[in-house]
Amino acid sequence: MALRRLRVLFGLLALLVATAVTVAVAPASGAITYPPASIETKPVTQPNGSMTLTGVGFTPGATVQVSLDGAPIGTTTAAPDGTFAFNFTAPAKVGPYQISANDGTNNLTTTFRVETGGGGGGGGGLPYTGTSSTPWLIRIGIGLLAVGGVFVALVRSPARRREADRARVDA
């Protein structure tokens, strides 16, 4: 009898954990979340090379001011999802440069180099490809484990009772 109570208690606990995980994972109704603001461009290009500055996490619909080494070179508008792309021509002079994007809320800077005889994409950091899903996946995994534990407890208990009854009859 105590074993049965323990199983029921375990099942209720697992159900409670699964419910808590589901509530914690579900986003607030109507809430829109954007990734952290970031910008990137090719780390190396040739003199007068064609470049594109891309950004995510900017204020949707905002005008984004783009500057090269502190001097404005143009503007673009952030899309409804907070992304933008700005095409520009790299300077003719070899050397390092800073390019900035500012929408009034976010002011970010990245660097690139102009080199002769090279160009293209090698080196630099990894591009931003999305949000980190690890915390969400851990919560979902814990919830699934808890639900699985409940099912195992419920499915296995009748079989164990039958085995115990058979053992008593045989004895």
Which descriptors would you attach to this protein?
single chain, alpha+beta, Immunoglobulin-like, 2 domains, five-stranded mixed β-sheet, three-stranded antiparallel β-sheet, 2 helices, 8 strands
Strand order of the largest sheet: 2-8-7-4-5
**How helical, in percent, are the residues?**
25-40%
- CATH homology group of the largest domain: Macroglobulin (MG2) domain
CATH class of the largest domain: Mainly Beta
Number of domains: 2
- Cα-to-Cα separation, first versus last residue: 21 Å
Radius of gyration: 29 Å
Q: What form results from the Cα inertia axes? A: rod-shaped
Which consecutive residue ranges, at least 5 long each, have pLDDT under 50? 118-124
Structural class: alpha+beta
Order of helices and strands: HEEEEEEEEH
Q: Provide mean pLDDT, rounded.
A: 79
Please work out how many helical segments DSSP would assign: 2
Strand content: 25-35%
| Main β-sheet description | 5 strands, mixed
Quick one: how many beta strands? 8
Could you walk me through the main structural features you see in this protein, from its secondary elements to its overall organization?
The protein has helices at residues 2-25, 134-170, and strands spanning 38-40, 44-45, 50-56, 63-68, 71-77, 84-89, 95-102, 107-114. A five-stranded mixed sheet has the order 2-8-7-4-5, with no helix packed on it. Strands 1-3-6 form a three-stranded antiparallel sheet, with no helix packed on it. The protein folds into two domains: 2-29 and 134-170; 38-114, Macroglobulin (MG2) domain (Immunoglobulin-like). The chain has two helices and eight strands. The protein is α+β, with helices and mostly antiparallel strands. β4 and β5 (71-77) form a beta hairpin. Mean pLDDT is 79; it is low at 118-124.
